[in-house]
Give the backbone structure.
Amino acid sequence: MAVARLITWLEDEDERAYQCMVRLYSHTGKAYIIGITGSPGAGKSTLTDKLTRHIRRAGLTVGIIAVDPSSPFTGGAILGDRVRMSEHNLDPEVFIRSMATRGFLGGMAKATGDVARVLDASGKDVVIIETVGVGQDEVDIIGIADTTCLILVPGLGDAIQSMKAGIMEIADIFVINKADRTGADQLSAEVCYRVEQDATIKPTDWGPPVVKTVAVDDEGVDQLWQAIGLHRKHLEESGRLTDKRRQRTYRETLRMIHNELFRVVREQLQSSGQLDDLVQDIVDRKNDPYTVMRQVVEDWLSVSKE
Amino acid sequence: MTKRIKMIVAKPGLDGHDRGAKLLARIFAEAGMEVVYTGLRQTPEMIVQTAIQEDADVVGLSSLSGVHNYFFPRVAELLREKGLDDVLLVGGGIIPMEDYEGLKQSGVKGIFGPGTPTTEIVGFIQDNVRSR
């Protein structure tokens, strides 16, 4: 209950969340975070459901964050991912939360990272983040997840699609879901070919496996769970997990400072009416936005130095 | 700080007719709410557990199979048991007028039959929802 309300405060950017997060932070860092991403209808929710079943069988507890898009027009949202996850509804060791993107791009909501921390601190062993249905370029999940699984399905394009930059680059594990459909073997071969190309172009110490699943029938999901386990072992033993999390903390710290700084400056500019005057000057061509930008920043810096 | 009404739209019991529930879910979303649709065949326990985890402000139940007199009061009872007294419980579907009073007394705050203008339902929710 307290967890659910804290998540709401985080979504609302309610001031009350701040104090809670300050106290909670030292309890984070224990959960393993899995990202599930892929195009709309690829089977992310179904796969998350079945994966959760396997993780529970392994005796681990699970937090799930399922993100769906907000309407750009009304701000409302249909959050439909729980439909596939009814099985875990009454399991006290599984906590599922739906989130709307609220205009945030990149495949997740602005607060998704913080919500993952809350579930982590609440003692969940594994946190699964299911992104919105993504296209080619929504790759923010890699900034949060320890292991990112990209779910592909047959029928969405030819070999050139699998060569492109963006989403195809972020997978630690490729999942070919709906593998009982025509074209699955070809897709699998194309993705394997891409993985080989990657290994030639930029040799790394991890070659993403390609796992075939039929999520609705729970086929191949145990192999996926094994693959996640292998990736985790690889990250832990090579020291990459620590590196990855340090880089994440680095980016997040910068982003948080950026957001807070901007919030404070904007609030002051708006509430004092100064922003309206500046805008009017720019509109009247008495000043230009470049000079205004530098002036505002310099004013703020001089104030903070005093 | 942005606040949005979070609502659960649920189909309790074995009733398989969800065209109405799905349409209403979209109407609530159109009104700016964040709507969690649970899917079919939900038990009262599942619905209330969803309300807890989602920190829902509103729970909307839809029944077209005549089971409302069991399921709606049971959801109301569980909500109270779990301390969710401030969650607004509403229901709709095929519900005879003579059942309205009993359902209201059990804790269902609003009941909306076929033909109710959707603006009336949205308005009722907006007027009666809790503030956090």
User: Anything to note?
Assistant: The radius of gyration of chain B is 13 Å.
